[in-house]
């Protein structure tokens, strides 16, 4: 333990500088105008894997953005850890809300502010640096494989094919991912479940052109009004989702499970203060921890239609749109939910408009075991770094590929996340604590060590 | 009559070329980036008034865009006609829906396509050319004054002050405005009523920043969802507006009045076909003519919030906005309705969000008499040009200054409009028929002639 601590201490400035370099690449996968930025990021990652000592490093082309692969096989008889991460990031807008430029990492009160700082550049890069340590100091306890993709924020569209076509190369005993958060630096935790996702875009068309709201107002259905009515009807007065069949496959937790879940520290006042809201809002009969962890949700991610520029324009719009995503829990199925949404949304549209529902992307919910060797190894590693036994939690986010890996490769995943919920993921001023970053680098070699030991 | 027809025939190419020049100025008053375009338009209009023979032409500064004034006083004992129009136009977006550039007038099947072609450049310029004819051919029957403003599309914010400060200069017997439409070239009509307007912008704020919809989804109110619910609640199942007190001051028409109103030709199938809708939509118990003419309405002119860019972003937005306008009928009052809306909208907001209602601009509804000399003069003039007696209609649009003029100057207005409802006012591909333009120029001198005769 001393050894890795010393190595981190001795190299931390370089570790930070390298991460800053990585964060300066605007690798926004959702927006075509950043294509170059995304591609150069892949090259940077490949180079850094080589520098750290990885063999057979390859920038693997896909129908979309490439997947960076690298490995270090020291002894076939040892267990193999497959590290997954993603080098793409969420769009940075609304830009005007950033205190410092999203692609110019800036440190304030010990936090690194930049798009991707925590999700996921800062987190996957910990593995590259921990790997560097294990190689240089001869501390490798397992074989290591890296698979860093560039399309996680847009649904990992091409990862499935890659995985199917590279089963041999990706053979491993466990998948290790740092792309989640823990409760706090004082209360380490391990996420043991992730919500699935169904993401759709809806288009409501009224008249075939924008109309003068005075000449036609009151005589023809306004698609913005109709869309509002349709969205409003998706939650009932108890904030239950009204889509028929939506809850059919939801696995209800036992009273014990719910009790355990709610033992995680949670301060509603702090939570409200942090978000600046007077009142929390959610599904009747469930706590906030449950609403964000074990219950499915439906959120409007974006809505637009008509004149949204400066000043006033008296137009009755032809079209209105919304991006809507649903978070799913075991055992809901992404495609089935998308289908249910589509059917329902089309069914509630009045004859006076046309509705189109376009599925964006999805992913399956997953629960990771807490009785596995890998979980125990993660538990021991975190306990050693934080001097406190981590508690299992349910994450509200989605990493669809966890389910994919289990299905295609038959490999389980450990979610060794070092972020915090307050890191502003997907928001302006995304940040990642320098301490989280360094502690992560410290913890990872311990996981490899204990995983190897427990696997014997 | 022959004479003006000949004059138009002899000069029509120049009349069109001059209008095209005027249409090439991007005089979008709502968008600050077009400031230069708006100001140059005022200069162009002033020059054209001089060229046509107007005296004392002046570009009168206001707190906003200037008002162009010009006059020709031939004999104080003759009646004076004050011509009002506006040289500013609506924003052109969505640009991608224009078949030809909005500020490059293009003729297709006898129609001039350009932003402002009908609203109101093409229509007020008819008066400039008719005036040119009357001056050059010594046909002036009345004194003429022009007041062409540049802020009609943003609520004529500074016209009120100008009118108050120039009562002497603006003294007239009648105000003549061409900024409305008639039923068709086969069925000339005169609008005898206009709806008022109350235009507001609402802002709904949930959390103090955009959030990750997975980490926070289901636990905090989504302002886009709440805004949708609030907007949805503004109309009941019969499409009556639910704002308490909204209908209190509405003057209900008598059965006779409604009967007369509904005698105007209206083909619902044609109407639906033109708009590309399967079904019309509106307030229960009223015909389409009534819904757009004598009933108040509430329309969403724009709505936006969250991520509206390419692809998918799983964000729970911090804010959602809407632009909402209400068309008012006699005797509703714009300020009172704005107040009622604000009070109601704030009252229906759940505690989990903050709501701000920002009034944009408004205007009062108006009804113009059909038994006046001016109306009869307009009737005779149109009948002579179109060989058919025009029928009185109620317009759905708003020209707030009509009420303003009556209040401040005590002068009534005649709405001598030559546009068509199908001219795509405020929409992409706005157009104005060349025939409408030329017939308008033909008709206007007749109005002056008959107005002078009937005034004797």
Automatic annotation (TrEMBL), chains A, B:
Domain of life: Bacteria
Keyword vocabulary terms for this entry: Hydrolase, Metal-binding, Protease
Cited Pfam families: M20_dimer, Peptidase_M20
Name the record gives this protein: Dipeptidase
Domain Peptidase M20 dimerisation: 193-351
